[in-house]
Amino acid sequence: MKLLVCVTKTPETTAKIAFTANGTAFDTNGVQYIMNPYDEWYALVRALELKEAQGGSVCLINVGSPSNDTVIRKGLAIGADEAVRINAEPKSSLYVAKQIANYAKSEGFDIVFAGKESIDYNGSEVSAMIAELLDVPFISYASHMELEGNVATVSRDIEGGTEVVEVATPFVISAAKGLAEQRIPNMRGIMMAKRKPLKVVEPIAADDLTEAVGYELPPAKSAVKLIDPENMDELVRLLSEEAKVI
Amino acid sequence: MVLVFAENIKGQFKKNAFEAVTYGAKAAEIMGTECVALVLGTVENAAGLGTYGASKVYHVADSSLDSFDAQVYTAVIAAATEKLGAKLVIMSHSSTGKSIIGRLAARLDAGSVPGVNTIPTVDGDLKVKKTVFSGKAIAEMAIKSDLKVLSVMGNSLQPDASGSEAPVEALSVDVPASRIKVKEVKRMEGIVPLPEAELVVSAGRGMKGPENWGIIEELAKVLGATTACSRPVADADWRPHHEHVGQTGVAIRPNLYIAAGISGAIQHLAGVNNSKTIVVINKDPEAPFFKAADYGVVGDLFEVVPRLTEAIKKHKAGA
User: Fold this and answer.
1) ipTM score over 0.90, yes or no
2) Which of A62, A143, A176, B243 has the highest local Cβ count within 10 Å?
3) How far is Cα of residue B62 from the mean position of the Cα atoms in its chain?
4) Taking a C-beta distance cutoff of 8 angstroms, is the pair A13, A37 a contact?
5) How many beta-carbon contacts under 8 Å exist across A and B?
6) How far does the CA of residue A158 sit from the closest CA of chain B (Å)?
7) Which residues of B touch A128 (CB under 8 A)?
8) What are phi and psi of B267, to 5 degrees?
9) Topology (CATH) of B2-170
């Protein structure tokens, strides 16, 4: 089974978010980067589990600059066999999807994994786009997956419940919490990762059809109004008359 | 033309569909064009979407569309877009919409912005805003392509049902065969799903155990709210997985978010800090959540929550 896992680099979850250049650029000053948690904890680990159970190979793919290699090496340390970096700035989701789909098409993968969304742009789009560009089924928000032969049974999260679907390879799947358990790389994995192949591929031509033109921070909250725990009538009055939410 | 894909659940249109049509009508007004709706599969009261601003409802009635397949839905919506000559396609930012928007954008080679929460401005490029960095910032996005696709974040506008019913017209497009099989759909009945809920009551580790959740459910029932929980609670299986709100769970923006016994880690705040009003109940006055709250109650939740439930009962009886 040939498995491809799309990984992206994001600011770590507790990073302070600020902008420079008059609110047009993300302030990278002091920001630590990680592999997007949905990609690392769920997509990558489920792919590794399938390889361990059935044989095959796990390849990582990322679109980004050489500074992403640290994050990619971590994925190799966790257990992926090889990695590909498309050497380009990932400026829009369709641009990224076209790069990945182009590579995936040339190699032919059975399953393409990605996290359900990145924690920076929260778009959830790239995996769906790759599926369309490859003309294969797309199973989103997968929280459980079993594979028998080439047929997968997947539970996917929907509003207030779950849906169970059956799909044959090839397909694209986006991973939600529950699909697998996070793995911490061990020393042997980290040493081996240094020798695993990380191929750099130049991008194909593609347009950016969307562009972030400005950023702002959410309006600051005014100071919390403390209510006497004995007086919940007062809280209800404020929610009704001041906040007008009940 | 603005085309709104209005999704249904078992033939019924829900609030997210009404929001999407209302959004589409407002966008159409700004662009000086008309807004039409597209409905798929077996549906009831498609004409009612007219009250939210659709001038016409196109219906692809093929019953194979009664179960969801992102690939098939994309092909059908793309065919309708091309046939009708729509320039802007709108859908809900639901599990369905989120599974389609990227596919549709790739198929039509259109610029797309998922999860928008403002009506577009059209000054040269079409521009919309969405939250980014898991709720910690807002980005303004410009779309440069002729054809555009947007999905509308739940609770970002009030559905406006001031119009009248619209004519429903059958639309003939090719419906490809599905390559997946939907085996089972398990959905909690009679509960407003979290992304659509206007009122949410949430609780965390301060509850000490799943057996104590009765007071949270009672408060939610009296308010007409949906229940939610923090990550540690879902991880410990005290509450179902789909109730988990926060950065790795569901991101929500209700009018009222009441959090009891949740300390307010930054990852939790990321999923809820777009709520209009936040009430925090915690016995620890140093809990970081108080900094993000509008109203705070420092006290024992096992006393405060039932007291709040009683106060709301009294308020409702008086109102």
Assistant:
1) yes
2) A62
3) 26
4) yes
5) 277
6) 6
7) 70, 98-103, 106
8) -70, -30
9) Rossmann fold (3.40.50)
- Element containing residue B201 per DSSP (H, E): strand B199-203
Which residue type occupies B49?
L
Q: Select from A139, A208, A217 the Cβ nearest to the Cβ of B137.
A: A217
What domains can you pick out in chain A, each with its CATH number? 2-217 (3.40.50.620)
- Which token pair is B100? 């389609």
Alpha-helical segments (H) within A84-195: 93-107, 126-134, 187-193
From the CA of A184, how many Å to the nearest CA of chain B?
18
Would you call B90 helix, strand, or coil by DSSP? strand
Contact A26, A19 (CB under 8 A): yes
B102·A121 Cβ contact <8 A: no
A134 touches chain B (CB under 8 A): no
C-beta atoms surrounding A199 within 10 Å: 12
> What residues in A contact B191, CB-CB < 8 Å?
160
- CATH no. of B194-318: 3.40.50.1220
CA distances from B143 to A76, A88, B111, B114, B146 (A): 36, 21, 6, 12, 8
Decide if B268 contacts B262 (C-beta within 8 A): yes
Closest CA to B224 of B177, B252, B190, B251: B190
Asked whether the beta carbons of residue A208 and residue B274 sit closer than 8 angstroms, the reply is no
Residue ranges of chain B assigned to CATH 3.40.50.620: 2-170
A144-200 residue pLDDT tens: 999 999 999 999 999 888 999 999 999 999 999 899 999 999 999 999 999 999 999
Question: How many of the other CB atoms lie within 10 Å of CB of B71?
Answer: 24
Per-residue model confidence as pLDDT tens digits over B170-213: 999 999 999 999 999 998 877 888 988 999 999 999 999 999 99
